[in-house]
């Protein structure tokens, strides 16, 4: 049996699926997959003057990836590509035992216990990586 941290808050984040769907037409889009477990997420972005105006995702994945995508869907609009890259660094640091991101991305604290499961770090980072690659065109 797994000892993954499937808390009520984590499950709620995944179920709420903030930003689920696709943007029509997407300005920028990228699909990222994890071949180890089969997780897959497509992120669509509308960007203007380096500002992310809208984000949507289509995520077929585990609860950890779904929760991460939901956090992005809820909080990414209004941020810059630099903010997104800083978020990636902050979440990666959290997964190595550091503090959770603060501010608009503080919900990542619900994924902090994934630090004990290095094989699952990619699940948390997958939507963020897809968003960065979409933003970079």
Automatic annotation (TrEMBL):
It comes from Rhizomicrobium electricum. Residues 16-100 form the NIF system FeS cluster assembly NifU N-terminal domain. InterPro entries: NIF_FeS_clus_asmbl_NifU_N (IPR002871). It holds the Pfam family NifU_N. It comes from the Bacteria. This is Iron-sulfur cluster assembly scaffold protein.
